[in-house]
Predict the 3D structure of the following.
Amino acid sequence: MSVLIFIDQSEGHIKKSSFEALSYGAKLAEQLGVSAEAIVLGKLSDDLAALGKYGVKKIHHAAADSLNGFDAQVYAKVIGDAAKTVNASVLVFSNNVNGKAIAPRVSARLKAGLVSGAIALPDTSNGFVVKKGVFSGKAFANVAVNTPVKIIALNPNSYQARAGEGSAEVVALNADVPSPKVKITATNKITGQVPLSEAELVISGGRGLKGPENWGMIEELAKLLGAATACSRAVADAHWRPHHEHVGQTGGSIAPNLYFAVGISGAIQHLAGVNRSKVIVVINKDPEAPFFKAADYGIVGDAFEVMPKVIAAVKKLKGVA
């Protein structure tokens, strides 16, 4: 028996959320008294053996060229087959964009119970009970999984990656890769921008900026910090910013290490998309703005007065003229 952890990667580099999943899966394997193994698909630049420091003992690597491009159906087939081969009793995914696409498909293939959005290790004292957030994180549910094979999709930023010492055995996986039903003919990349779904730092603006002509301060701070930019629904609906930058209940859901909100009141619909951020900083001139209740740090003040000071302080810290 084993716990099998999916390592998500992009362009040959392992995503941060995968380190959290590895630590979580390794701890779960220890809890269950089974081995911790992992699987990664596609060509990688990172050192796989070094991932042993997160507690995983063996890594199955399917490096076929046909796996370099993400295809949820193909990935689900390969991972499902591998799970049967290693006799996995639990599979762990990160509940990110790719994990949300793969985990349900693997669940259907293996007839496995799936808990998406897990935030803690399962309680195995009496069965297998997984805690997850519900109602946009306002409440919690304890979900009992009774199937022989179980799948957990771990919310990013809900379990700390813990690195120690050790090296993992890397095993080549000769996967039976099915022909994809969708063929990618071309990929156009937007250079110079951090993908919002993968960003560790996000600078976001709302209607308090008064117009798209004032967005320069958001972009300047984002560039200084190497952050992605985002916006509230009101901004996207007003066509100040493209809709792919909209975060919230009806937009994207993100989990950066830092979410820096400028001129956003913090309606519950917006909080639903950002409440998994590790640290939230809010700048708003309204001291009664609901966002302050969710913020770790808050500045009551006019964005047009505060932001230039923040930018100047960051420049000084970084030694930028």
